[in-house]
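From the shared-data thread, chain only:
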Amino acid sequence: MLNNIAIAAPSVEELAQRLEKMQIDMDNLKKQLANRATKQDIQLVEKKVQKANEWRDSDTLVHMAGYADVGYTDAQSEDGSFNSANFSPIFHFQYRDLVMLEAELEFSTADSGETNVDLEYLTIDWFVNDYMTLVGGKFLSPVGQFRQNLHPSWINKLPSAPPGFGHDGAAPVSETGLQLRGGFPFAGIRTNYAVYVGNGPELVAEFEDGEYELEGIEAEGFGSDRDGEKVYGGRFGILPFAGLEVGFSASTGKATVTSVEDGDDGLLSNEGARDYDVKGADFNWLLGSFNLRGEYVETKVGSSNAGTAASPGAVWETWYTQGSYRFVGSKWEAVARYTDFDSPHLSQDQTQWALGTNYLFTNNFIGKFSYEFNDGLSGNASDDDRFLFQMAYGF
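Structure, as tokens:
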């Protein structure tokens, strides 16, 4: 029976129509797949672009800088030793053009081999406008030039600080408080300024032969104000023409004896505040490869007739002049510095000639050789001549 059923074969026209329909369906499917792939690719590209823009137009910038140094010292009364290994990273975190956090840590090797860690400064800086920044926290003292601009080892042209510009000297080291700083043009002349209020220094007295006398000033940015007295000060700089800057500094307030060497600190609760005044001047002149700079600082502490550590006042005074010349077309540089430091104690008084030769491997990597001719009280470290070598790197 099946053999008697006739099955009609499709005509050529019908086959052509079916083939055309299949081709159309295939093209539509390809278009759909292509469209889907394109959307995915676009989404992927958009994500990559957004990520790239996020880094390019980021609101927050992070930056690390700093310096490190190693050195060797050979003094007349001591054996020569490698005694310097310091690492000072500096961190900057900035949000837009509005605010920046900056901080410097100092890691150093003690004589015992232990590692000391200090916070040199930490501030939050609010950029009020193009001419003013409000700084809050612990900051380097704006009195003079050396402490705030020259103390990093790769910037200082000699391996040591001028006498009186280190810790417990005539010049303040740091302060904790608020500071306004910036610069502005005045009558066609560029100027810069810094004014501050802070906790101020603390005084150290020494008990000897039944009497007290002022031993030193600790002006290193204390995180508390134990005597409740604030100090106010600042610096004003003038740049009359390119290559020359002249600055004038001053601060005033009160300071109190808070510790006693070889005495009972517990008896100091009734100590009265003393007058505390600092004045200074500095200059920096750059002419081609020649640089001449100088600085003067005087710190005066008033007398006290009340309290356990009642004693006369005292004055710390120091100044230096430094000249340097980098030989044209060479990596060699010659440096000479003269310093005169006077304190209330003969054992600390010192005049110094420091002569040095530097080799600049790069602008931020320097090798320093210097010899110090020191004149102080005989038998004291202040009278020892010294040879110093240092390698310093800034990054």
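Residues 1-7 have pLDDT under 50 and may be disordered.
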